[in-house]
Amino acid sequence: MSRESRESRKTGEADPALRVAHLLRIDGYLDMAMLGMWAATERGPSLLGMADASLRHPGPDERDEELLGLVRALFKEARGYRDAGDFPAMMCRMRVVEDLLALRIIEITGDAPGERGPDGS
Q1: Separation CA 27–CA 5 (nearest Å)
Q2: Alpha carbon 58 to chain centroid distance?
Q3: CA 72, 89, 45 angle in degrees (round to 5)?
Q4: CA 109 to chain centre
Q5: In a designed cystine with 51, which of 25, 29, 39, 62 is the match (CB 3.0 to 4.6 A)?
Q6: Global pTM value
Q7: Cα–Cα distance between 109 and 19 in angstroms, integer?
Q8: CB within 8 Å of 43: residues ≥ 6 apart
Q9: Contact status, residue 20 vs residue 108, Cβ threshold 8 Å
């Protein structure tokens, strides 16, 4: 275990790489669900269920919980639109969820133009 990881455990904050990995996992399930819905495959509802399951657990760092709460609410709203047959509204909500996750990943890694990552590089 790296020194940074040990220090993170003492302070209750997760390693940035772990936070990013968690958000990327959720984002990956959302990608699959969106593609499944666009393709109108029989697997679309199952893929939505997988994305939903990836959102059920808390993140590794409390700093992401507010975002994850918003993401969960928007995803639930998207599923409601799907159940009502409003495909464009569902996809809009899913896109917003993906954008929110991407922006947090950029914030954590410092990959925005002109910013430095957590390691200072």
Answers
A1: 24
A2: 11
A3: 60
A4: 14
A5: 29
A6: 0.78
A7: 10
A8: 36
A9: yes
Structure-block tokens of residue 25? 């996992």
Token pair in block for residue 38: 């666009």
Structure tokens at 103: 């922006």
How far is the C-alpha of 24 from the C-alpha of 10, rounded, in Å?
25
pLDDT in tens, the chain (121 residues): 455 544 444 556 889 999 999 999 999 999 999 998 888 878 888 998 999 999 998 889 889 999 999 999 999 999 999 999 999 999 999 999 999 999 999 999 987 666 555 565 5
Tokens of 81: 């639109």
Nearest in space to 71 (alpha carbons), one of 46, 93, 49, 89: 93
* Helix (H), strand (E), coil (C) string for the chain: CCHHHHHHHHHCCCCHHHHHHHHHHHHHHHHHHHHHHHCCCCCHHHHHHHHHHHCCCCCCCHHHHHHHHHHHHHHHHHHHHHHCCCHHHHHHHHHHHHHHHHHHHHHHHCCCCCCCCCCCC
